[in-house]
Amino acid sequence: MTVRGTTVDIQTADGTADAYLAHPDDGRPHPGVLLYQDAFGLRPHLKAMADRIAEAGYTVLVPNAYYRKGRAPLVELPELIDIEQAGEIFTQLGPLLMAVATPEVAARDADAYLAWFDASPLVQDGQIGVTGYCLGAFLALRTAISRPDRVAAAACFHGGHLATDRPDSPHLDAQRITAELYFGHADQDDSMPPEQIARLGEALTAAGVRYRAEVYEGAGHGFTQADTNRYDAVGDARHWAALFDLLARALPA
Questions:
Q1: pLDDT score for 1
Q2: What are the residue numbers of the active site?
Q3: Tens of pLDDT along 173-194?
Q4: How many domains does the chain have?
Q5: pLDDT confidence of 249, banded at 50, 70, 90?
Q6: Which residues pair with 183 in a beta bridge?
Q7: Which CATH number do you get for residue 110?
Q8: DSSP per-residue letters across 148-174
Q9: How many CB atoms within 10 Å of residue 127?
Q10: Strand pairing of 3-12 and 15-24?
């Protein structure tokens, strides 16, 4: 399927978010999928991921979550990001990430993205799918929480801090979720240790949420991101199979 990719601007409560839009180039509306970035932001690798989902028959939106500080890219990234040598990059991105990773900001932005979907002739009416990576896993889960009326499915890959001791931890709002969820946890991920994985599962089970959670053995945080040295080809292939299985079941194209 031929895919067209463009840049679009989305009006939010806090400004204008630039975003990458990928969709089948057939002039017809397709189910919408919201793809949330990892910590490194909107860049060519995420656009390629969006294109791959669009090839399966979806209209995919990848917002620049850091739009309040400017259009993407906000920092210069090497062709291959070495996580262990990326201290300066994290120094620049850390404050941006922390500003986005709150329930209130996530909900406001999700409302704006959904309103854009509603107004677009490229998107079918009704529910959408969401997938997120790292920071994006938090945003995906928060979108499922804040907009249960609109999210049919949400996938979260190598997400961190999803079931902490904080009073605003996402797992505490599990009872609001109506979407089907999938979690691809990395077993070499200090940001989502076994105790948090267990706590998240217990909360989802108690709330009656339909979900599947898997721990990818040997995978580190960021294993789906091919432009970093944490990339794991086996884990990435498994992630694509799980994502497309979820979408085909909960939001068929």
A1: 87
A2: 134, 189, 221
A3: 999 999 999 999 999 999 999 9
A4: 1
A5: very high
A6: 156, 213
A7: 3.40.50.1820
A8: TTTEEEEEEES--SSS-SSTT-GGGGG
A9: 18
A10: antiparallel
